[in-house]
Every structure is written in structure tokens, then in C-alpha cells.
Amino acid sequence: MALFARATSIFIVSYKNYSKLILPTVKSKTWKNFPSKSTFFGHSILNVRFSHSDQTKKGEPETFVTFDNFLKERRDEAKRSILVQVNTENSLKDLHFYCSTFGEIKSMFYYVLSDNKSHHVLVEFEKVESVDAILKSATHIKLDQVIPVHSSMLYFRKLKAKHLHAPKLKFPVKYAKLPVKDKHFLEVLQNSKTAAQQVQKCYSILKLDDLGLRLRFQTAHQLERCFSGIFPDMEALPFGSSVNGFGKMGCDLDLYINFQSNRSENEESRLVFQTKRLHDNERHQCSDFVRIIGDLIEIFAPGIFNVTKILKARVPIVKFDHRITGVECDLSLSNMSAIYMSELLYIYGEIDWRVRPVIFTIRKWAQSQGITSGNPGGYITNFSLTLLIIFYLQQKKVLPTLLELRSKALLNDLRITDTNVDCTFLRDISMLRNIEPHGEDPYALLRGFFDYYAGFDFKVDAVCLRQGAVLRKKDSSPIYICNPLEPSLNVSRNVTYREMENFRTGCRDAAWRLENAEKRHFDNSWGIISLFVHKVRNTNPGLNVADVMREREPESEESDFILASK
Ligand code: GTP
Ligand code: MG
To answer: Which residue's CA is the nearest one to ligand 1's atom 18?
Structure first.
């Protein structure tokens, strides 16, 4: 059944119900040479001082959390949270005091958006009932001028009666992560002890932090609330780099909407909902739906602006900016296999501690060299690049092939989408994890990646992560990466010949730079620093690192976070 059917959830049993469905019959179907301001750290967002709350203590291995549980915990957290705009940081104590009267507060995060310098607080309660109570007590003002919608996005207005100010008690508040600016990034790399440590720093500095994740799930939750009247079971599920463990600060939010997560019919019920019929033309229905969602959120949803509908694409999407959470979002209806793809990437990132550091470093290198780009065109996407890296790590026996993961799958790992894509593979990889620092270090793996693809014969060979083997290409696409879940499809079919060459020469160049850097220990561009400085396509003469550091001062507002004034 149609795309629309998928969009509504006939479209597959949602991720959380899937684990319960184990019958095979179940189907649901520089710096001058660094990237430009706008692309270096992704979208412009916000602000302030540092909380390390999302970081684990050194040497303490994180326990493995399955993708389903990770999503569930984050979604629950969003349901227990509200997002409040305040005048300044000075309102925090008052806000804490006021919110406490509705229930126990678990955490508070404060951030300032760099675009409009607005101040916001994400308040997480212990219980969802506190959110219900506080939203019930909220009011609209200037009723003749506003559309009176309800949402968990609020303002905290000034108090009239002064004597009701909060008492002087301590209250917990976490501050948004300090942005990593070019200069700081470089300093951290220079101050590292080894090249392997530099690679790890790339990951720890650039990765999406706890607040970034919370704001993405809060954005998703707002959409669920928005449609809850007519679709009470609707789920807005993040996928892509926001949840697959490869997201950096400021990455976009890919969202998939599932209108009826609980799709089973209640045979006991005598009362049946009156409904309208689905169109016969599924594609038409799907793009109609996307268009209407776009219109509704543009008109009614607070914070959502710049709504663009791309309806004629294979997968129609709505793009928008969220001016309260600071997130850029791509919303689609029919994408269950993309969610399982995110889960697969999440699992690969969890299996070996070196995977994410290596991938972050290569993604950053590719961005700095113009190999990947936020702009449309025949560029290699981050997604394709990630698959190329995972494939290389399979060759190094750091990661298992998909067939190996499939062979270890248990009955409750069965997942088949409504379009018959078999997404079954082992979900609980706790027994496969390598958290011990042995074997090749991340830097050696990084070097190996450049060597591997500098010599790869893209003319005739395709990479296949399913088998973990090089296969013969099935067509003349410049780069052929078999989609691991749908092996007959080429994930990188849009990449042009020029971009493939750019990637290959970029790899050669990177291997050469690393080799040279090894000869010049501890000068300004030792270790992996040289990877980021000179831009392959840059027509300007390259800068050395010292130039870069001078040139970038003082820092501008390019980063996700700016420092809030105290
Ligand atoms: P960034 O947004 O660049 O940080 O990475 P991303 O992984 O989120 O990539 P993107 O936003 O372009 O795509 C989101 C997700 O959609 C990816 O993670 C994949 O799961 C899926 N996806 C993207 N491109 C393709 C494709 O060509 N084929 C398939 N099957 N899935 C894709
Ligand atoms: Mg994305």
C-alpha cells in the first residue's frame, strides 16, 4: 500500500513496537583555508558556558544502550521538558522557583541563540504530570493579536508583585557547551600528546552534545503535540546524524513522521472511527500530506520559520528553521528504512571505540577540503563518506560485515519494512564491543583510510558493506556504494566523476601530508593538523597555521554557541 499508507503507519510497526513483533509474517511493510563561516560548524545556533554532563569519566567504559532504548529515553526526556524563553540569565533563579511549584525539576539548561541573542531555558521535570500542570496554568497574552496555540514553548514574563521573588536558594543549571572555534580546535590539536589523541579530540570536541540532542528531541516533540488532537498516536522520530552517533554540533535534524504508531485493530471495540479514504495515488497523497504539514507548522507552530516544501522529490520533504531550538530540520513521511540505517550506523559506532573518532576526523577533513558540501550538487555526502569509512574498517577487521551481524540476529531483531526491505541484524551488540585500547590506534586507522582509497579502483569496483567485499560495479556510476540494506541500490549514485576524482586525489594528498607531518615532529602543523589547513580547491595561496591563528582572531559568531555575557 501506498506511500501514504507508509506515512500513516500502516507504515510499519514503529521501532518500539517492533521489538515485540517477532513473527516472520509481521510486515509493515583558517582560517582562510578552513571551510567558510557558514559551513564550518553547521548551522548557527547558540551559546554559553560549559557543562560536561554528557561526557563519561575517563577510563570508564560506557554501558551499551540499544538504539531503541536510546530513542525511548530521549523521547521520554522531551515529554518531561518545557522550553522557556527568558529575558536574561538573571531570570533563571526565578524561573526555577516558579517551575518548582509544579513539580520536582530534574535539570535546567540555559542557552543563548547566536542569531537573535534570545535567552532560553530547557527545564526537565521528574514527572510528565508536572509538564501537564504547568502547561494548564500557562496563558496567552494579547489575544486579539496571536493565534492561541498550545505548545511546550513558552515565555517567562516579568513579575508584577516584587515580594514574590525567589528566595536565595541554590538551584542547578547547566550551561550550553562552549563552541569549538577554529582557533580553539587547532590549539587543542596542537596541545595533544600524540596523533592518536588528536583524532580522539576531533570526536570529543565536535560531537553533538547532550543539550544539542535534547533540543532536537524537543523539536520532534513539539510536532507530536501539534498534531496530537487529530493523530494522538503520531510519532516524530529523529534519524540521520542526530541519532546515529556521527552528528556534530549544529548538524541538521532529519525527522520522520509516523501518524499512527499503534496500528493494530482492536477487535473488541464496537465503536469504529469515521474516517476518510486514502487516495489511490499514493505518491500524490504523500506529497499532499507533506504540503499540508508544511502549511500547518508554518502558520501555527511557534518557532518554526522559513518553511520550504520539496514535493516533487522521490521522498517529499519539508525543510524549516526552528528559531527557539536553533535546529534546521528536514521532515519526511516515508523513511523507515532510513531509520534502520541510522540504527545500523549507531551500532557500528558502538562496536569499536575508534570508529567515531576516525569518522569525525575524516568528515572534518572532507569538509575542509570541499569534498563534502552542504550545497546541492554531485558532492559525496557525509552519509556516503561514512559508509566508505565503515567499509574500510571492515577490511581492517575492526568492524563486522552486515552479513555477520545478520547471522547473529535473534528472533526479536527481525525488522521488515512495508516495502519489504529486510532490516534484520543483531541489535544488542554488547558482546561484540571492543572498548580495549589495543590494536591499531585511531591515527594508524586514519592513515590507512587515505592509503586505501587513494589506490581504490573506482572505475570497476564497488564497495559492499553487506558482504564486506569489493564487488564489480553494476553500472557506470563514478562511485558505487551498495546500500547495505537494499543491495541493489547505489547510495552514491548522484556523485559526479569530478567529485570522485576530487575525493581520490584528496586521499592521496592527505596521505602525503600525514607522511610529511610525521617527519616534522611538533611544528605548528604536526600530526593531523595539516589535514585541515590547505584547501584543495582554494585558489588563494595557503596559510600556515600561525597565519591562520592570527587571522581568525577575534572569533566571530560562526559557531553554534556564543559566550553569554554574565
Ligand atoms: P549530516 O546531516 O550531513 O550530518 O549526515 P546525515 O547522516 O544525517 O545525512 P543526511 O541528512 O543527508 O541523511 C539523513 C539520513 O538519511 C542518513 O543518515 C541515511 O540514513 C539516510 N540517507 C541519506 N542519503 C541516503 C541515500 O542516498 N540512500 C539511503 N538509503 N539513505 C540515505
Ligand atoms: Mg542529517
So the answer is: 240
Composition of the chain by helix, strand, coil, percent to 5: 40, 15, 50
Could you count the other beta carbons within 10 Å of the beta carbon of residue 21?
Answer: 18
Ligand 1 atom nearest to CA at 252: 2
pLDDT range class, residue 282, cuts 50, 70, 90: confident
Q: Mind listing the pLDDT tens digit for each residue in 401-426?
A: 999 999 999 999 999 988 899 999 99
Strand partners, 422: 416
CATH number of the domain encompassing residue 156 = 3.30.70.330
Distance 328 CA to ligand 2 centre (A): 9
Beta carbons of 216 and 327 less than 8 angstroms apart: yes
| Residue 23: pLDDT band with limits 50, 70, 90 | very low
Among the ranges given (44-58, 254-268, 277-291, 510-524), the one the predictor scored with the smallest mean pLDDT: 44-58
The string of pLDDT tens digits covering residues 446-475 is: 999 999 999 999 999 999 999 999 999 999
Give the model's pLDDT for residue 49.
32
Atom number of ligand 1 nearest to Cα 483: 30
339 in ligand 1 pocket by Cβ < 6 Å? no
Q: What is the pLDDT of residue 184?
A: 87
Alpha-carbon torsion, ordered 137, 141, 146, 151, to 10 deg: -20
Asked whether residue 317 is domain-assigned, the answer is no
pLDDT at 26 over 50: no
Question: Rg for the chain (alpha carbons), in Å?
Answer: 24
Range of the domain at 427: 352-564
Cβ of 530 below 6 Å from ligand 1: no
Alpha helix stretches (DSSP H) within 412-464 = 442-454
The preferred substitution site among 207, 253, 254 for testing ligand 1, maximizing ligand atoms within 8 Å of CB, is 254
Please indicate whether residue 373, judged by its CB atom, sits closer than 6 Å to ligand 1: no
Q: Whose CA is nearest to atom 14 of ligand 1?
A: 240
- Asked if residues 237 and 15 have their Cβ atoms less than 8 Å apart, the reply is yes
Q: How much distance in Å is there from the Cα of 117 to the middle of ligand 2?
A: 25
252 touches ligand 1 (CB under 6 Å):
yes
Q: What is the CATH number of the domain that holds 372?
A: 1.10.1410.10
Of 383, 389, 489, best ligand 1 pocket probe by most atoms within 8 Å of the beta carbon: 383
Sorted by sequence, the CB contacts under 8 Å of residue 328 that are 6+ apart come out as 43, 252, 253, 319, 320, 321, 322
Residue 304 covered by a domain:
no
81 is written with which cell numbers?
A: 521538558
pLDDT tens per residue, range 291-320: 999 999 999 999 999 999 999 888 899 999
The predicted model scores a pTM of 0.84
Cα 159 to ligand 2 centre (Å): 41
Task: Give 205-225 pLDDT, tens digit per residue.
Answer: 999 999 999 999 999 999 999
* pLDDT above 80 for 33: no
What is the distance in A from the centroid of ligand 2 to the CA of 242?
A: 7
| List of residues 6+ apart from 506 with CB closer than 8 A | 365, 366, 369, 371, 536
Distance CA 423, CA 410 (A): 13
Domain stops at, among 131, 159, 181: 181
